[in-house]
């Protein structure tokens, strides 16, 4: 890890019961992986919420952006109910629920020009959960950044960025 | 284990997945990798797609995987089992077997050690025809060592395959007698080949007898992969609060290691450690295996949290014992680990996995730490050193010399033409 290049990591959190804990964990792991260059690293964390924003940045180098979830209609409620059921109905429900949530988040993010710009200038963009994967995957043709799912892949991508 | 063979003069080749793959799916302990014996040759092989579900490179994701991740995974699971009956890992059979045959063609192999899991390693071991192999089970293939639930019966297709592998093995190793006995019951025709080769500890730099000094506000350490889904973690947290108070605790607990086998962790466990700071609990992240002695040296006592199940020994149990530190056990007393701990002079077991039972064990330990008995500490240290891995492996490696056709005498490494893959 010899590069002196300042890194920017973006974090996208979709559905999470504890977004603060997830963002803190990813950011702290990223700092740990970058090591002595951590002072130069900056980050942007985006998370979806359906109430009041609750996440605070624990580090001045990290910017946290809350995104209000789009209100679901009756169909969304039915899908959520099905997702909690056992058996094939539950499997289908979870599949559909995750698919709808990931589409909704991707739509919201694609409408945010400021965030799209931030993503394009990132070195690594990490999707924290399944419902964030689509939003990050959509960026594959618009940036050369490492696009990854989860903390372990993020650490690998950061190490690779430092080797470049 | 490879180091132990190399120390004994064997020419060792290790066949494993490419380090780039390890880096993507779990990370690489660089310091530990540097401690591999310099004479060991490591042959890295492509994973054949076996680790694709664990890799988080979104650029490699297909639209199908993005649209329907569960269906994608199930399709891959089914495809991977065509070559070998193990989800996903079956895909490693072909590239690893080809590599094994190539190693053998280059320099004939005398013995194959196949360590699971994944169990596809047993299939790879058989790729070199006519070479004796040892099946080193760390867990069990046929049943779940935590729940005890059977994954396949001996008369199923997979069971028959396992029976054939066992029948033709040179030796079959298990980490405790509980797993061995269950395997002997399932496959009696191979029972004579089965033996217990217990887990041992590898002394890391700084491994030393702990200083005996009173601790008014003791530090309790946990080191290892936190398999929190199966562990009595919530009971422990409640017991901790009951023992030391919720606001200004009279002790601290430091957790180090991965929060799951892969290193990723659920939001719930992250939240527990995030909110536990006021409770004297904290999580300080993973640590290199080479640095564990420094961590143990900074602790007054250790917490042994294990999954429940009579087949569970826990990979860290002997390492804990070797520290000579007091151990508070928070696990089912029916666990196989209890066999190792029962006679340890500084053992503080939670007799019941209730908050009060755990709190009592923690309090008992804290009390012993206030006025430590030097003789008891010395006895604990002496007890733990018997689990040195090299001591455990020495007699079995000597036996394997015979199986490989070289008698029991230690060969001269420079002239020997043997190898162990």
Explain this structure to me?
The complex is a heterodimer of chains A (164) and B (421). Chain A has helices spanning 19-34, 74-83, 87-110, 113-120, 130-137, 150-163, and strands spanning 8-13, 42-49, 62-68, 124-127, 146-149. Chain A is α/β, with parallel strands linked by helices and 164 residues long. Chain A has a domain at 8-69 and 113-163: Rossmann fold. In chain A, strand 4 (124-127), helix 5 and strand 5 form a beta-alpha-beta unit. Chain B has 421 residues and is of the alpha/beta class. Chain B folds into 2 domains: 2-199 and 389-403, Glycogen Phosphorylase B (Rossmann fold, 3-Layer(aba) Sandwich); 219-386, 3-Layer(aba) Sandwich (Rossmann fold), CATH 3.40.50. Helices cover 37% and strands 12% of the residues of chain B. Chain B contains 17 helices and 12 strands. Chain B is globular and about 65 Å long. Chain B starts with a helix and ends in an 18-residue tail after the last helix. Chains A and B meet through helix 1, helix 3, helix 5, strand 5 and helix 6 of A and helix 2, helix 5 and helix 11 of B.
Short précis:
The complex is a heterodimer of chains A (164) and B (421). With 164 residues, chain A is of the alpha/beta class. Chain A is built from six helices and five strands; from the N terminus they run E-H-E-E-H-H-H-E-H-E-H.
Instruction: Classify the helix fraction of chain B into a percent range.
Output: 25-40%
CATH uppermost class of the domain at 8-69 and 113-163 in chain A: Alpha Beta
Task: Describe the strand arrangement of the main beta sheet of chain B, using strand numbers.
Answer: 9-8-7-10-11-12
As a percent range, the share of strand residues of chain A is: 15-25%
Low-confidence stretches of chain B: 411-418
The mean pLDDT of chain A is: 90
Q: What integer is the average pLDDT of chain B?
A: 92
Number of distinct beta strands of chain A: 5
- Tell me, briefly, the overall form of chain A: elongated
Number of domains of chain B: 2
């Amino acid at each position: 890890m010899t590069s002196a290049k300042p890194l920017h990591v973006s974090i996208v959190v979709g559905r999470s019961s504890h977004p603060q804990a997830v963002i803190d964990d990813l950011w702290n792991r990223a700092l740990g992986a970058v090591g002595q260059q951590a002072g130069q690293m900056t980050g942007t964390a985006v998370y979806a919420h359906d109430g009041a924003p609750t996440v605070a940045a624990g580090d001045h180098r990290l910017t946290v952006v809350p995104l209000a979830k789009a209100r679901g209609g009756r169909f969304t409620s039915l899908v959520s109910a099905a997702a909690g059921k056992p058996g094939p109905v539950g499997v289908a429900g979870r599949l559909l629920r995750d698919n709808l949530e990931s589409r909704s988040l991707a739509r919201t993010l694609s409408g945010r020009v400021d965030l799209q710009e931030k993503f394009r200038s990132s070195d690594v963009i990490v999707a924290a959960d399944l419902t964030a994967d689509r939003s990050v995957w959509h960026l594959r043709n618009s940036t050369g950044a490492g696009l990854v799912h989860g903390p372990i892949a993020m650490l690998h991508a950061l190490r690779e960025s430092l080797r470049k | 284990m490879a180091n132990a063979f190399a120390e004994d003069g064997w020419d060792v080749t290790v066949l494993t997945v490419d380090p780039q793959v390890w880096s993507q799916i779990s990370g690489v302990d660089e310091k530990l990798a540097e401690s591999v014996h310099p004479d060991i040759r490591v042959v890295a092989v492509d994973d054949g797609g076996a680790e694709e579900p664990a890799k988080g490179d979104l650029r490699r994701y297909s639209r199908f995987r993005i649209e329907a991740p569960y269906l994608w995974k199930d399709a891959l699971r089914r495809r991977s089992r065509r070559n070998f009956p193990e989800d996903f890992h079956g895909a490693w059979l072909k590239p690893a077997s080809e590599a094994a045959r190539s190693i053998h063609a280059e320099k004939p192999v005398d013995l194959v050690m196949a360590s699971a899991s994944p169990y596809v390693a047993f299939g790879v071991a058989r790729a070199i025809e006519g070479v004796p192999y040892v099946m080193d089970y760390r867990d069990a293939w046929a049943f779940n060592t935590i729940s005890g639930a059977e994954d396949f019966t001996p008369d199923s297709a997979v069971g028959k395959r396992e029976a054939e592998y066992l029948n033709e093995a040179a030796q079959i190793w298990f980490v405790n007698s509980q797993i061995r006995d269950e395997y002997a019951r399932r496959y009696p025709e191979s029972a004579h080949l089965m033996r217990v080769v217990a887990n041992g500890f590898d002394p890391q730099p700084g491994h030393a007898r702990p200083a005996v000094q009173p601790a008014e506000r003791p530090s309790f350490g946990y080191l290892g992969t936190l398999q929190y889904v199966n562990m009595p973690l919530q009971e422990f947290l409640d017991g901790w609060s009951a023992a030391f108070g919720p606001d200004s605790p009279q002790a601290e607990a430091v957790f180090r290691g991965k929060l799951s086998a892969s290193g990723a962790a659920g939001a719930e466990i992250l939240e527990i450690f995030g909110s536990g700071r006021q409770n004297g609990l904290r999580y300080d992240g993973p640590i290199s295996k080479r640095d564990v002695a420094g961590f143990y040296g900074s602790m007054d006592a250790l917490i042994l949290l294990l999954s429940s199940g009579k087949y569970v020994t826990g990979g860290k149990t002997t390492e804990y014992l070797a520290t000579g530190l007091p151990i508070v056990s928070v696990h089912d007393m029916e666990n196989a680990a209890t066999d190792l701990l029962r006679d340890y002079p500084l053992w503080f077991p939670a007799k019941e996995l209730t908050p009060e039972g755990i709190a009592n064990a923690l309090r008992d330990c804290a009390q012993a730490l206030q006025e430590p008995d030097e003789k008891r500490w010395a006895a604990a240290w002496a007890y733990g050193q018997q689990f040195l891995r090299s001591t455990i492996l020495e007699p079995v490696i000597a036996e394997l010399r015979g199986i490989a056709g070289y008698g029991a005498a230690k060969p001269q490494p420079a002239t020997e033409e043997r190898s162990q893959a």
